[in-house]
């Protein structure tokens, strides 16, 4: 069975969580307020579509830190958590935007996830929410297609994921239509095998990826330069410097082979880092294999 891993990103308030809920059939809370509701990345339980097993990862809005809803110390833990979820790579990126003008946040989200985090190696599609006001829903995309040619989107998919209220009878069939069209696009544009952004088979370790991505987040979120990861600073040291509590910092790194190797290298045991890394990889592989067998 083909495994498709989809990373969903976009600015706060674009409808990421509503989209993910509709795709997966789950019901995480949503919030139409200015501050949004997604305070951390979330891996939804996999679901099946035809002969494919699809996993959806919903992400924190990039600009939450600059808005004060996600402090820097939480943001770095969330990024480490997201990179741990990215250990098996991604088959597709799904950028979510509202049917409106292209904003600065749209550009920055695209640059961060497509160009910096995955370095242009993972295909990306754009889901345009709020198209329920168009008839047919494809009208907005037809009128605005040319404005998106500077991006490398494989496809622009007009959608409606609105729900509830006196218009629910109108929204329901549009949500179903949107889900079907989006799943077709996911199936058509996803990589045959998920592409990794760090680890074996890539030119980047976990720590190198973390440094590159965290420092870019500091720039995008408008955080002070003091939050940047310093030369030769370990991920663990970065978390502690930003004020992450000991227990949370320990929990954030305990399953990550690269970070375990980093800590092991600081012990007096010869080869301790490589030993810890190998042991953690074996355990993670055994857990992953066991999980697949139970599906």
Secondary structure layout plus pairing:
Elements: E1 2-9, H1 16-24, E2 42-43, E3 47-49, E4 52-58, H2 64-67, H3 72-85, E5 92-98, H4 104-117, E6 124-129, H5 138-144, E7 153-158, H6 168-189, H7 206-220, H8 235-241, H9 246-253, H10 257-264, H11 272-294
Parallel strand pairs: 1-4, 1-5, 5-6, 6-7
Antiparallel strand pairs: 2-4, 3-4
What does this protein structure show overall?
The chain has 295 residues and is α/β, with parallel strands linked by helices. The protein has a domain at 2-189: Rossmann fold (3-Layer(aba) Sandwich), CATH 3.40.50.300. The protein has eleven helices and seven strands. It has helices at 16-24, 64-67, 72-85, 104-117, 138-144, 168-189, 206-220, 235-241, 246-253, 257-264, 272-294; strands at 2-9, 42-43, 47-49, 52-58, 92-98, 124-129, 153-158. Strands 1, 2, 3, 4, 5, 6 and 7 form a seven-stranded mixed sheet that branches. Helix 5 (138-144) links the parallel strand 6 (124-129) and strand 7. Helix 3 crosses helix 7 and helix 4 packs antiparallel against helix 7. The radius of gyration is 20 Å and the shape is globular. Mean pLDDT is 83; it is low at 29-39 and 283-295.
